[in-house]
Design a protein that fits this description.
242 residues, alpha/beta, Zincin-like, 6 helices, 11 strands, globular, binds zinc ion
Length: 242
Amino acid sequence: MTIPFKRPARRASAEQRQIELQGEIVDYCLVRSVRRSIGLSINQRGLRVGAPLAASLARIESLLRQQGDWVREKLARWRVHSALTLDVGSECLWLGQPRLLRRAAGRVHQCRDGQLELVARADEPDLAAAFIRFCKARARPWFLPRLAHYAGCLGVPTPPLILSSARSRWGSCNAQGEIRLSWRLMQFDPALIDYVVAHEIAHLKAMNHSPQFWAIVEQLYPDWRAARFTIRNLTRQLPQLD
Ligand SMILES: [Zn+2]
Protein backbone atom coordinates (compact mmCIF):
# COMPACT_ATOMS: atom_id res chain seq x y z
CA MET A 1 0.00 0.00 0.00
CA THR A 2 1.28 3.46 -0.83
CA ILE A 3 0.53 6.42 1.30
CA PRO A 4 -0.36 9.52 -0.74
CA PHE A 5 2.22 12.16 -0.12
CA LYS A 6 1.66 15.74 -1.11
CA ARG A 7 4.86 17.63 -1.60
CA PRO A 8 4.70 21.10 -0.08
CA ALA A 9 4.89 23.97 -2.53
CA ARG A 10 8.45 25.21 -2.88
CA ARG A 11 7.74 28.68 -4.10
CA ALA A 12 5.94 31.64 -2.59
CA SER A 13 2.25 31.78 -3.47
CA ALA A 14 -0.86 33.74 -2.59
CA GLU A 15 -4.44 32.53 -2.59
CA GLN A 16 -7.81 33.86 -1.47
CA ARG A 17 -9.46 31.71 1.20
CA GLN A 18 -12.37 31.87 3.61
CA ILE A 19 -12.90 30.70 7.15
CA GLU A 20 -15.84 30.84 9.51
CA LEU A 21 -14.91 32.63 12.74
CA GLN A 22 -17.57 32.77 15.43
CA GLY A 23 -20.35 32.57 12.87
CA GLU A 24 -18.87 35.15 10.49
CA ILE A 25 -17.39 34.23 7.09
CA VAL A 26 -14.01 35.92 6.90
CA ASP A 27 -12.02 36.26 3.68
CA TYR A 28 -8.27 36.25 3.83
CA CYS A 29 -5.30 36.19 1.57
CA LEU A 30 -2.97 33.30 2.39
CA VAL A 31 0.58 34.12 1.38
CA ARG A 32 3.08 31.30 1.65
CA SER A 33 6.76 32.09 1.64
CA VAL A 34 10.01 31.10 3.23
CA ARG A 35 9.35 32.04 6.86
CA ARG A 36 9.23 30.27 10.20
CA SER A 37 5.96 31.28 11.77
CA ILE A 38 2.42 32.20 10.84
CA GLY A 39 1.70 35.92 10.96
CA LEU A 40 -1.59 37.80 10.72
CA SER A 41 -1.93 41.35 9.50
CA ILE A 42 -4.55 43.69 8.09
CA ASN A 43 -3.64 45.68 4.99
CA GLN A 44 -5.75 47.83 2.67
CA ARG A 45 -7.29 44.70 1.17
CA GLY A 46 -8.23 43.08 4.46
CA LEU A 47 -6.80 40.12 6.37
CA ARG A 48 -3.48 38.70 5.24
CA VAL A 49 -2.03 35.50 6.61
CA GLY A 50 1.66 34.88 6.05
CA ALA A 51 2.64 31.24 6.49
CA PRO A 52 5.66 28.99 5.96
CA LEU A 53 5.62 26.99 2.72
CA ALA A 54 4.90 23.69 4.46
CA ALA A 55 2.42 24.86 7.12
CA SER A 56 -0.71 22.72 7.00
CA LEU A 57 -4.07 24.36 6.44
CA ALA A 58 -5.26 22.79 9.70
CA ARG A 59 -2.49 24.62 11.59
CA ILE A 60 -3.26 27.90 9.86
CA GLU A 61 -6.98 27.64 10.51
CA SER A 62 -6.47 26.64 14.11
CA LEU A 63 -4.39 29.78 14.67
CA LEU A 64 -7.05 31.92 12.98
CA ARG A 65 -9.68 30.45 15.31
CA GLN A 66 -7.50 31.09 18.35
CA GLN A 67 -7.08 34.70 17.24
CA GLY A 68 -10.73 35.00 16.19
CA ASP A 69 -11.54 37.95 18.48
CA TRP A 70 -8.49 39.91 17.36
CA VAL A 71 -9.20 39.23 13.68
CA ARG A 72 -12.85 40.20 13.84
CA GLU A 73 -12.20 43.36 15.82
CA LYS A 74 -9.42 44.49 13.45
CA LEU A 75 -11.53 43.69 10.40
CA ALA A 76 -14.47 45.64 11.78
CA ARG A 77 -12.19 48.66 12.21
CA TRP A 78 -10.69 48.15 8.76
CA ARG A 79 -14.18 48.13 7.19
CA VAL A 80 -15.08 51.45 8.79
CA HIS A 81 -11.71 52.84 7.76
CA SER A 82 -11.93 51.62 4.18
CA ALA A 83 -15.46 53.00 3.93
CA LEU A 84 -14.24 56.44 4.96
CA THR A 85 -11.11 56.66 2.91
CA LEU A 86 -12.24 56.46 -0.67
CA ASP A 87 -10.15 59.50 -1.41
CA VAL A 88 -7.25 60.76 -3.47
CA GLY A 89 -4.83 57.88 -3.86
CA SER A 90 -7.32 55.15 -2.91
CA GLU A 91 -7.89 52.32 -5.29
CA CYS A 92 -11.41 51.66 -6.46
CA LEU A 93 -12.85 49.16 -8.90
CA TRP A 94 -14.39 50.46 -12.07
CA LEU A 95 -15.82 47.83 -14.44
CA GLY A 96 -13.59 45.30 -12.75
CA GLN A 97 -10.39 47.33 -13.20
CA PRO A 98 -8.49 48.83 -10.27
CA ARG A 99 -8.29 52.62 -10.66
CA LEU A 100 -6.42 55.13 -8.62
CA LEU A 101 -8.64 57.96 -7.48
CA ARG A 102 -7.66 61.52 -8.23
CA ARG A 103 -9.39 64.84 -7.94
CA ALA A 104 -10.33 66.16 -11.36
CA ALA A 105 -8.82 69.49 -12.33
CA GLY A 106 -11.78 70.37 -14.56
CA ARG A 107 -15.50 69.89 -14.23
CA VAL A 108 -15.90 66.42 -15.66
CA HIS A 109 -15.14 63.00 -14.31
CA GLN A 110 -12.53 61.25 -16.41
CA CYS A 111 -11.33 57.71 -16.60
CA ARG A 112 -7.88 57.37 -18.16
CA ASP A 113 -4.39 55.93 -17.70
CA GLY A 114 -5.43 53.63 -14.88
CA GLN A 115 -6.83 56.59 -12.97
CA LEU A 116 -10.27 57.84 -12.23
CA GLU A 117 -10.45 61.63 -11.90
CA LEU A 118 -13.55 62.67 -10.00
CA VAL A 119 -15.14 66.04 -9.40
CA ALA A 120 -15.88 66.50 -5.71
CA ARG A 121 -18.08 69.27 -4.33
CA ALA A 122 -16.59 71.77 -1.94
CA ASP A 123 -18.45 70.33 1.06
CA GLU A 124 -17.47 66.73 0.42
CA PRO A 125 -14.69 65.49 2.69
CA ASP A 126 -13.56 62.69 0.36
CA LEU A 127 -14.23 61.18 -3.05
CA ALA A 128 -16.83 58.57 -2.03
CA ALA A 129 -19.85 60.69 -3.01
CA ALA A 130 -18.21 61.65 -6.30
CA PHE A 131 -17.53 57.99 -7.04
CA ILE A 132 -21.17 57.11 -6.32
CA ARG A 133 -22.32 59.89 -8.70
CA PHE A 134 -19.91 58.59 -11.31
CA CYS A 135 -21.30 55.02 -11.02
CA LYS A 136 -24.94 56.11 -10.94
CA ALA A 137 -24.64 58.32 -14.01
CA ARG A 138 -23.15 55.48 -16.04
CA ALA A 139 -25.18 52.56 -14.73
CA ARG A 140 -28.38 52.98 -16.75
CA PRO A 141 -26.66 53.59 -20.11
CA TRP A 142 -24.51 50.51 -19.41
CA PHE A 143 -27.34 48.22 -18.27
CA LEU A 144 -29.96 49.07 -20.89
CA PRO A 145 -28.19 47.62 -23.96
CA ARG A 146 -27.26 44.52 -21.96
CA LEU A 147 -30.89 44.05 -20.91
CA ALA A 148 -31.94 44.49 -24.54
CA HIS A 149 -29.30 41.97 -25.63
CA TYR A 150 -30.38 39.19 -23.25
CA ALA A 151 -34.08 39.95 -23.71
CA GLY A 152 -33.46 39.54 -27.44
CA CYS A 153 -31.71 36.19 -26.86
CA LEU A 154 -34.77 35.00 -24.98
CA GLY A 155 -37.23 36.50 -27.47
CA VAL A 156 -38.95 38.78 -24.93
CA PRO A 157 -39.39 42.58 -24.96
CA THR A 158 -36.76 44.60 -23.06
CA PRO A 159 -38.17 45.04 -19.54
CA PRO A 160 -38.35 48.36 -17.66
CA LEU A 161 -35.20 49.05 -15.62
CA ILE A 162 -35.16 50.55 -12.15
CA LEU A 163 -31.80 51.55 -10.71
CA SER A 164 -31.28 50.43 -7.11
CA SER A 165 -28.64 50.98 -4.43
CA ALA A 166 -28.75 47.43 -3.07
CA ARG A 167 -25.48 46.19 -1.61
CA SER A 168 -25.74 42.48 -2.14
CA ARG A 169 -29.03 41.95 -3.90
CA TRP A 170 -27.45 42.93 -7.18
CA GLY A 171 -30.54 42.42 -9.25
CA SER A 172 -34.16 41.46 -8.86
CA CYS A 173 -37.22 40.96 -10.97
CA ASN A 174 -40.78 41.49 -9.76
CA ALA A 175 -44.09 39.99 -10.82
CA GLN A 176 -44.71 42.98 -13.11
CA GLY A 177 -41.57 42.06 -15.04
CA GLU A 178 -39.63 45.13 -13.87
CA ILE A 179 -35.93 44.57 -13.31
CA ARG A 180 -33.93 46.31 -10.61
CA LEU A 181 -30.16 46.50 -10.92
CA SER A 182 -27.83 48.07 -8.41
CA TRP A 183 -25.56 50.87 -9.62
CA ARG A 184 -22.89 49.25 -7.41
CA LEU A 185 -22.54 46.63 -10.15
CA MET A 186 -20.51 49.20 -12.08
CA GLN A 187 -17.58 48.10 -9.90
CA PHE A 188 -17.76 44.64 -11.49
CA ASP A 189 -16.19 43.29 -14.62
CA PRO A 190 -18.60 43.64 -17.58
CA ALA A 191 -18.86 39.84 -17.85
CA LEU A 192 -20.09 39.66 -14.25
CA ILE A 193 -22.61 42.44 -14.85
CA ASP A 194 -23.82 40.40 -17.82
CA TYR A 195 -24.39 37.42 -15.55
CA VAL A 196 -26.61 39.45 -13.23
CA VAL A 197 -28.52 40.85 -16.22
CA ALA A 198 -28.94 37.38 -17.78
CA HIS A 199 -30.09 36.00 -14.42
CA GLU A 200 -32.81 38.63 -14.05
CA ILE A 201 -33.91 38.29 -17.68
CA ALA A 202 -34.27 34.53 -17.11
CA HIS A 203 -36.71 35.38 -14.30
CA LEU A 204 -39.04 36.81 -16.93
CA LYS A 205 -39.65 33.19 -17.93
CA ALA A 206 -39.35 31.56 -14.49
CA MET A 207 -39.97 33.50 -11.28
CA ASN A 208 -38.07 31.03 -9.08
CA HIS A 209 -34.74 29.25 -8.87
CA SER A 210 -35.99 25.90 -10.19
CA PRO A 211 -33.89 23.62 -12.43
CA GLN A 212 -35.94 25.00 -15.30
CA PHE A 213 -34.82 28.53 -14.36
CA TRP A 214 -31.14 27.53 -14.26
CA ALA A 215 -31.52 25.84 -17.64
CA ILE A 216 -32.63 29.19 -19.09
CA VAL A 217 -29.70 30.95 -17.39
CA GLU A 218 -27.36 28.33 -18.83
CA GLN A 219 -28.70 28.98 -22.29
CA LEU A 220 -28.18 32.76 -21.89
CA TYR A 221 -24.93 32.63 -19.94
CA PRO A 222 -23.16 29.23 -20.00
CA ASP A 223 -20.48 30.20 -17.47
CA TRP A 224 -22.99 31.21 -14.78
CA ARG A 225 -21.54 29.02 -12.03
CA ALA A 226 -18.14 30.70 -12.07
CA ALA A 227 -19.72 34.16 -12.29
CA ARG A 228 -22.00 33.45 -9.33
CA PHE A 229 -19.05 32.26 -7.24
CA THR A 230 -16.90 35.27 -8.12
CA ILE A 231 -19.70 37.72 -7.32
CA ARG A 232 -20.26 36.15 -3.92
CA ASN A 233 -16.60 36.62 -3.08
CA LEU A 234 -16.42 40.15 -4.43
CA THR A 235 -19.50 41.23 -2.53
CA ARG A 236 -17.61 40.93 0.73
CA GLN A 237 -14.63 42.91 -0.50
CA LEU A 238 -16.22 46.04 -1.92
CA PRO A 239 -16.06 49.31 0.00
CA GLN A 240 -19.16 50.28 1.98
CA LEU A 241 -20.19 53.24 -0.12
CA ASP A 242 -22.98 55.34 1.37
ZN1 LIG B 1 -32.79 35.01 -9.02
